[in-house]
Amino acid sequence: MPAIVIMLLAFLGGGLLATQAPTNAILARAGGSPVLAALVSFAVGGAALLAVWLVTGDRGGLANLRGVPWYAWLGGFYGALFVGVAAYAAPRIGLASLITIGIAGQVIMALLLDHLGALGLPRVPVSAMRVVGALLVLGGVVLVRRG
């Protein structure tokens, strides 16, 4: 797949991710719990992924999952934590603040993981330009919060 298509898909995914917090906030308000909202969100997402998995015939190597390190199973936990936090935080601090703060956290963690070459990633050392980029993102958080 060409890089431009991958970048457009990432852009679309990011845009749709921004809609997840307010829709889950609606569920949280109606159900009285951000945890319930996150559970419903993951159940619907899980059902959608199961349907796509069954329809596409992309079975992968399920037996190979037994050999992955314990921390490889935590991705869903991280996602569930963020979805629950987002359902709670979006109506309290605003969607733009939630998203920019979340992105700042992602960029800082990404710099650390890249620098260490952690979790099977290629090692990409922290550079002055990468730090400036992260500082610009943090500046964006301040501007969005004060705006």
UniProtKB/TrEMBL annotation:
InterPro entries: YdcZ
Residues annotated as transmembrane: 34-56, 68-89, 95-113, 125-144
Cellular component GO terms held in the UniProt record: plasma membrane
Transmembrane helix recorded as keyword: yes
A Pfam family the protein falls into: DMT_YdcZ
Keywords recorded for this protein, A-Z: Membrane, Transmembrane, Transmembrane helix
Highest taxon in the source lineage: Bacteria
PANTHER family per the UniProt record, alphabetical: INNER MEMBRANE PROTEIN YDCZ (PTHR34821)
Protein name: DMT family transporter
